[in-house]
Design goal:
The complex is a heterodimer. Helix content of chain A is 13%, strand content 42%. Chain A has four helices and 27 strands. The termini of chain A are far apart. Chain A folds into two domains: 94 residues, no CATH class; 128 residues, no CATH class. Chain A has a 27-stranded mixed β-sheet that branches. Chain B is α/β, with parallel strands linked by helices. Helix content of chain B is 42%, strand content 9%. In chain B, strands 3-2-1-4-7-6-8-5 form an eight-stranded mixed β-sheet, with helices on both faces. Chain B is globular. The two termini of chain B are 31 Å apart. Classes of the chains: A mainly beta, B alpha/beta. Chains A and B meet through helix 1, helix 2, helix 3, helix 4 and strand 5 of A and helix 1, helix 8 and strand 8 of B.
């Protein structure tokens, strides 16, 4: 008798969680397929989707050029011509212009600001995502930034420079390095590098390929990476340095004075949680700070 | 499952009304073991109302079992049980670690923001074997993707189809010869791996993407999958698969939850923690130079994805994963199909484990956490027969009297049901469903137990078969498709828009305008069930991109919620 009661009680206990299950099963609560599109729009908006919706969603639509008074703010702005914002601009949603955009000092650009042409952001500004060809920062410049003219003309030295380094293997056009690596001034390497430590390119050093490193990536003055640059820590681009492809870091990126990412005919992406940009730095393409972007 | 065995054990104890009796000295004892007198309560024996003698022992003797002599078989069985329990605990900790990482840890999506780049040339392979019901959907979807048109080529690999697949592929190739170049196989080994191997011969492109024929890639998926290949360390990329036929029946809904846990939690956590994310063979791709370096696809592999994952990792490459790269698939709608599918996975996985487990510990350049988690990854399917063995063993040992925990087993059994084994996996699934924002589904969670038992038995059968008959040739078993077939009428092939023009989605592919004919099971409301595959906007597309109105921290876990 006791055993029967016990078994019965146990059966009830086991069955109890199944009651809502059966209800959910039969009533088909929340049974649709997961809606996979537009799920990450807040962080992944694509160009055509944004632009196609511009006219419909713009808070302000301007045909022609537009000059915005200092200190004013907009939620969403779509302009067919150029935009000039004298200073202390505030964009709370997005700005989309087909002509050049000039934003003065101490602007606060939340969301996305895009131009089909040059986008200039003055010093002391904060930003989240900027798109332009190019995006330029800091002190006002009249000439558009240009990548080094000799960007594709470098000598070929296929990993000889790595002799004596903590070398793992060189397969195909890629070399694995276990530990930190420093490329001496003027040193040129042909091929991609995977460095399981920190990587430093001293002034004038060049990698004819892409690099990825687990530690900090430091690109010295006038050093060049003719491919993409990835770091699991931070990337420091010194003055006059150049990265041809995307530049991505897990923590932070600092663009030194006149550092350049991307080229006019090969646009690129700069992305990190925190980005700090100095005067005359330029990015051809997109610069995206997921946590904070600042112009020094 | 082990918790189930513990529960049964506890039940046995409670129903029998006594703890296990140590075996009498049978002569097979350890020399060190001395017979110990069983402690007796000073109060003596209490017969109770049932008349059954119940031994009353001091509390410390329940916690600390006195040394007794067991038969050698029982002792060996006990050690085996200890090992099994240890493995269960290790997997449990792993489940918890992954789930906590997804809920509270830093999330790594380093390649997702890359929207502008010098994109690599890529080839998209679509293996097809009797896919007339589904193949036109993926070809239609590939016509709409936003990847630079001069840098992609689609090769549908028709592996000896006997239905209308060939005619459909030829119709698309005739309409878009610059984009579709079907490969019709008539000989060689059957199966996906063999088809892929043949398809990549002479390939010159940088990157190879693979989609099964029942998948429906979104408009920007190709670009997202290509972005990680800009990193020279990445040898393969994996995206997330999302069941499209979820509402079909209970099985599809349970599989949807399982898939959620596998991708939303497991795979993303592996990416976050820097251990081995798994290339899943579809909604993903491989760098061609890496593939060649490790010897290409193995024709005799049932799970070419696991196989290539391990070889790439051993070759010094990384697998990139992001749950932002999402794509629809069909999941099995009947249990026999599901069982065959999981048995094929189990056999292929076990085969890979036998081949690569030793190399995982011998190959230089891998971190300890990669070796450790990689071993656990390879051992996933091996755990099913081990759990079953543990279950049976625990019961046998109990009745042999070899249980070391004596009376506290009842307490342990009840407690462990909630902590060891099942609960960790359930916790993971619940977390995944929450992250997906489908909170209503959590009520179905207890029913997953039934699916687990079916999977465990099927997997055990497959693993044992693979271990015992490892020389038996692997036989490919194609997963059944459920969509309705449509005629391969060339006139219904959608128009492909030129580069940088408005990427309008044909009305037939836009959920707001109607459903894809035949995609959604007839019993469903198609317009509700099928999410949009793209936009139907007609404004001109710009050269520049936009984004981000809400700033998010990398620590923020609440996706979709």
């Amino acid at each position: 008798m006791v055993a029967a009661v016990f078994v019965l009680a146990l059966g009830v206990l086991v069955a109890l969680p199944l009651a809502p299950s059966i209800r959910t099963w039969k009533r088909r609560i929340d049974s649709r397929p997961l809606r996979i599109h537009e799920r990450y729009d807040h962080e992944l908006h694509r160009a055509s989707e944004e632009r196609s919706g511009s006219a419909r969603r713009a808070g302000l639509r301007v045909h022609g050029d537009y000059r915005v008074p200092e200190g004013s703010s907009v939620g969403a702005l779509c302009v067919d011509g150029s935009v000039t914002w004298d200073g202390q601009a505030v964009v709370e949603g997005w700005l989309d212009a087909r002509g050049p955009v000039t934003v003065g000092r101490h602007a606060r650009l939340e969301g996305s600001c895009a131009s089909d042409r040059r986008l200039f952001v003055g010093s002391g500004s904060t930003f989240e995502r900027l798109v332009g060809a190019p995006v330029e920062f800091g002190a006002r410049v009249d000439e558009g930034a240009t990548p080094p003219s000799d960007a594709t003309r470098y000598g070929k030295r296929r990993f000889e420079g790595l002799a004596g380094r903590p070398f793992i293997s060189g397969t195909g056009d890629r070399t694995l390095i276990d530990g930190d690596l420093v490329l001496d001034p003027g040193e040129v390497l042909d091929g991609s590098l995977v460095v399981r430590g920190a990587l430093t390119l001293r002034s004038g050093a060049t990698v004819n390929g892409s690099v990825t490193c687990y530690g900090d990536l430091t690109v010295g003055e006038s050093a060049r990476i003719l491919g993409a640059a990835f770091s699991r820590q931070s990337v420091w681009l010194a003055a006059e340095s150049f990265v041809a492809g995307p530049c991505v870091a897990d923590r932070a990126i600092r663009l030194g004075q006149s550092a350049t990412v991307g080229m006019e005919n090969a646009r690129s992406t700069v992305s990190a949680p925190r980005i700090e940009s100095h005067a005359y730095a330029a990015v051809f393409g997109i610069i995206h700070a997921t946590e904070s972007g600042q112009v020094a | 499952m082990p918790s189930l065995s513990a529960l049964l054990l506890g039940l046995s104890l409670l129903l029998s009304g006594a703890g296990p009796e140590p075996v009498a000295d049978a002569g097979l004892v350890s020399p060190a073991a001395e017979p110990v007198e069983r402690p007796v309560s000073p109060a003596g024996i209490d017969g109770g109302s049932t008349g059954v003698a119940v031994e009353v022992r001091p509390l410390e003797s329940w916690v600390r079992t006195p040394q007794v002599r067991y038969p050698i078989a029982a002792r060996l069985g006990l050690y085996v049980l200890y090992v099994i329990v240890l493995l269960i605990v290790v997997y449990t900790v792993r489940h918890y670690l992954f789930t906590y990482n997804r809920l509270f840890g830093r999330q790594r999506h380093p390649y997702v923001p890359i929207d502008e780049a010098d994109w690599p040339r890529l080839t998209i392979l679509v293996p097809c074997h009797n896919e007339e019901k589904v193949v036109h959907h993926i070809l239609d979807a590939l016509l709409q993707v936003d990847y630079p048109r001069d840098r992609m080529l689609v090769i549908p690999v028709n592996d000896r189809s006997t239905d209308g697949t060939r005619a459909i592929l030829d119709a698309y190739a005739a309409r878009y010869p610059e984009l579709f170049r079907p490969l019709h196989r008539t000989g060689g080994l059957p199966g996906k791996a063999a088809a892929l191997k043949e398809a990549i011969e002479g390939l010159r492109d940088d990157v190879l993407l693979v989609f099964d024929a029942d998948y429906i890639p979104g408009r920007d998926l190709i670009k997202r999958l290509a972005a990680p290949f800009l990193d020279p360390e990445v040898g393969a990329v994996m995206g997330r698969v999302v069941p499209l036929n979820t509402p079909r029946n209970l099985l599809t809904r349970l599989l949807d939850m399982e898939r959620s846990a596998g991708y939303q939690v497991d795979q993303q956590a592996r990416m976050n923690l820097g251990v081995i994310a798994q290339y899943g063979g579809t909604v993903g791709g491989v760098r061609v130079s890496a593939l060649r370096q490790v010897g290409g696809w193995r024709e005799d592999s049932l799970t070419e994805d696991t196989d290539i994952t391990l070889r790439l990792v051993l070759g010094g490459w990384k697998i990139a994963y992001s749950n932002r790269y999402e794509c629809y698939e069909e999941v099995p709608e009947t249990w026999p199909v599901r069982i065959r599918q999981i048995m094929r996975w189990a056999r292929g996985h076990t085969d890979a484990a036998m081949r690569y487990l030793p190399d995982l510990w011998r190959t230089p350049g891998l971190s300890l956490r990669e070796r450790f988690d990689g071993s656990l990854l390879l051992g996933t399917y091996l755990m099913s027969p081990l759990l079953l063995s543990g279950w049976v063993l625990a019961l046998f040992l109990f009745y042999l009297g070899a249980n070391p925990f004596a009376g506290i087993i009842a307490v342990l059994a009840v407690a462990s049901y909630g902590t060891i084994g099942n609960f960790a996996a359930f916790f993971e699934i619940a977390a995944a469903v929450r992250l997906d924002g489908n909170r209503g589904r959590i009520a179905l969670l207890p029913m997953i137990l039934g699916g687990f038992i079916v999977s465990m038995v099927s997997t055990s059968r497959a693993v044992v078969r693979q271990l015992v008959f490892s020389r038996e040739p692997l036989q490919w078993d194609k997963t059944q498709r459920y969509r309705r077939s449509v005629a391969s009428d060339p006139s219904r092939i959608p128009v492909r828009e030129p580069d940088r023009a408005p990427l309008a989605v044909p009305a037939s592919m836009d959920a707001t305008a109607g459903a894809i004919p035949g995609v959604v099971p007839a019993s469903l409301d198609a317009a509700e069930a099928l999410p949009s595959l793209g936009r139907n906007d007609s404004a001109p597309a710009p050269a520049a991109g936009h984004a981000v109105s809400k700033r998010r921290s990398n620590h923020e876990p609440a996706e979709g919620s």
